[in-house]
Design goal:
Elements lengths: L2 H4 L3 H5 L4 H21 L22 H16 L3 E9 L2 E10 L2 E6 L12 E6 L10 E5 L2 E7 L5 E5 L13 E2 L5 E2 L6 E2 L5 E3 L5 H8 L8 E2 L1 E4 L2 E5 L6 H6 L18 E3 L5 E5 L3 H9 L4 H4 L14 E10 L3 E8 L4 H4 L5 E6 L3 E7 L5 E12 L2 E11 L10 E2 L2 E2 L7 H7 L1 H25 L3 H4 L8 H12 L19 H4 L2 H4 L5 H31 L2 H23 L12
Antiparallel strand pairs: 1-2, 2-3, 4-14, 5-6, 6-7, 7-12, 8-9, 9-10, 10-11, 13-14, 15-22, 16-22, 17-18, 18-19, 19-20, 20-21, 21-22, 23-24
């Protein structure tokens, strides 16, 4: 008999449910698999009693009962468990299993709770002061649906589904009028911030009020709010959306509202960043939830790929639930003496639908938190909203100016400079994650392979990846709009993959404005260099020639900066 079956306890395994029900559920599996055990010499085939014969069950069938439960457990879970923990609290049953299958280490959680509803949640969409243009409608996308964000005459931000109720043309092509209403540029209908239509130019005067009062004339308004500088949008526009959204708070760092630690916060919202990434929500969250890739993928920025890769110790602080996600601590088991001196413990958390954070506490008590929100915009694409939270220690201890590779004292930099420098770090993951989702989709189409078949995750460092995918599986994936096709977009070549203009610049009013100004400066420098150079040659003035050359070199530098608004390529082969 196998070791798993020898450890089974009959009273614990059987007496908690009626025997007839137990056999009805498990006997068919055991009867089918028992001959296979006999073939390899573990057990003799057993003739199990009928499911309804409780009285006929005697001691000689105890082994059959154990076999039924044990074999079904093996059939359901794949292979014998390396470790298991069962906890019962009230009527909730939660089991945490580390399962080994062909060397694969999996973290499994059977939390019995309501499936996460993607429509009943807040999503951060943009930084209002940097990314959105208050003078015109701004196009957004969430869960595969097109939205439009706009600011009224009183400074309030509103979000509509991007279609006019009249003829279903995009309201994002409309205008914000002097009266503070959003006008559809097709027929001139106007809408207030709550979606009510305020003007229908084609209506007869006697019919106007009746038409204005008709609910079908209203735009589909989403609950929206500005909090911590971000525009947050609710996932749907049902009649109950206003009430339901009022009962839910956006996911933000709890330190911002904890009076006991608020005084220790030294920086937060100034480094917000936004960009659209060419990969989906699931692989994006998988990437940032994986602590082991940092030592290799971020060579020469955060780590050294040759000396820093090491085992990672992971301990779950909050077990996975559908509503609240999960939280775990991790510690790198460094191999080099220099790294061993750091001995830092980090904490990583995922809160659905989009919130992810990793907090590293330094020896002096200070801490650095990197916050990432990945908003599912459409299949195969996501919007990244990121920031950093820097806190002093209990006695005012400060983090170094360069903590964990992140420049934490950058408040003096113009916002557009911070924006164009973000790809320096983000693009180191980009090529991997973008093509990873294409490979996974190809495998699924070819053989029906799920992530369990496509991945081989044998190390403790993989526990966080497995935990995330288990959460996704339990909740049925992302709640996309039903009208969307299920196929992902085709993989991009590197020329388009590293396109920073479409990923950020054209969607950020700060960077769009900066790009226009820098382009003007470049043209002025080039023209001045030409004029001064020609004048210097004509007058045989060495000073004028040198000045013209300097201006030409300056124009070249400005041209390089201008290029960062359009493209930021990265090759790991060149990162020596």
């Amino acid at each position: 008999m196998s070791r798993a079956l020898q450890r089974a306890s009959l009273p614990e395994a059987v007496t908690s449910v009626p025997l007839s029900r137990a056999f009805a559920q498990f006997a068919p599996h055991a009867q089918a698999l028992a001959p296979r055990f006999a073939e390899v010499g573990h057990l003799k085939p057993l003739l199990l009693p009928s499911a309804g014969d409780d009285e006929g069950l005697s001691v000689q069938f105890n082994s059959a009962l154990v076999l039924a439960f044990g074999v079904c457990a093996l059939a359901l879970h794949g292979r014998r468990h390396r470790a298991s923990r069962i906890s019962r609290r009230h009527n909730t049953f939660t089991e945490e299993v580390l399962e080994v299958e062909d060397g694969r280490l999996e973290a499994e959680d059977h939390g019995r709770s309501e499936i996460f509803n993607w429509k009943k949640a807040w999503y951060p969409m943009a930084l209002v002061d940097e990314n959105l243009d208050p003078s015109r409608p701004n196009k957004l996308q969430l869960l595969g649906e097109d939205l439009v964000a706009w600011r009224d005459g009183q400074g309030g931000w509103h979000v509509f589904e991007d279609h006019c109720p009249h003829r279903s043309v995009p309201l994002s092509e409309g205008r914000i009028e002097v009266d503070g209403n959003l006008m559809c540029s097709y027929h001139g209908w106007k809408f207030a911030g709550d979606g009510r239509v305020t003007d229908i130019p084609q209506a007869h005067h006697g019919d106007l009020q009746r038409l204005l009062d008709n609910r079908r004339a209203c735009a589909a308004a989403r609950p929206a709010k500005v909090k911590e500088g971000l525009l947050w949008v609710w996932g749907e526009s049902s009649p109950d959306a206003t009430l339901e959204s009022a009962l839910v708070e956006p996911n933000l760092p709890e330190e911002l509202y904890d009076e006991s630690v608020q005084h220790r916060i030294t920086s937060y919202n100034y480094p917000w960043g936004m960009r659209d990434v060419p990969y989906g929500w699931d692989v994006a969250l998988e990437n940032v939830t994986d602590p082991a890739h940092v030592a290799v993928a971020h060579h020469n920025t955060l780590a050294n790929r040759y000396t820093d890769p090491c085992p990672v110790e992971i301990k779950f602080v909050r077990r996975s639930t559908n509503k609240d996600g999960f939280k775990f601590q991790f510690r790198n088991k460094w191999k080099t003496p220099e790294r061993l001196e750091e001995d830092m413990v980090s904490e990583m958390e995922f809160r659905p639908p989009s919130y992810h954070r990793v907090t590293t506490k330094l020896k002096n008590g200070a801490s650095l938190t990197v916050v990432n929100n990945f908003v599912p915009t459409k299949p195969g694409r996501a919007r990244q909203i990121s920031s950093k939270l820097l806190m002093t220690g209990p006695n005012g201890e400060r983090a170094p100016t360069n903590a964990l590779g992140y420049k934490v004292k950058e408040g003096w930099l113009p916002n557009w400079v911070r924006h164009i420098l973000q790809p320096f770090f983000v693009h180191q993951d980009l090529v991997f994650v973008h093509h990873q989702q294409a490979i996974l989709q190809s495998k699924e189409r070819k053989s029906g392979a799920t992530w369990k078949q496509s991945y081989w995750t044998p190390c403790e460092a993989d526990k966080s990846t497995v935990a995330l995918h288990k959460w996704i599986d339990r909740n049925g994936g992302i709640g996309w709009s039903p009208s969307l096709p299920s196929t992902l977009l085709e993989p991009l070549d590197k020329a388009r993959l590293f396109d920073t203009y479409s990923a950020h610049t054209e969607k950020c009013v700060t960077c769009s404005t900066a790009l226009k100004n820098i382009s003007r400066v470049q043209r002025v420098l080039e023209y001045s260099a030409f004029v001064l150079g020609v004048a210097g040659v004509s007058a045989r003035s060495y000073t004028a020639i040198v000045g013209g050359a300097a201006l030409y070199l300056g124009a070249g530098v400005v041209s390089k900066v201008e290029g960062l608004f359009h493209r930021y390529p990265f090759n790991h082969q060149d990162n020596k």
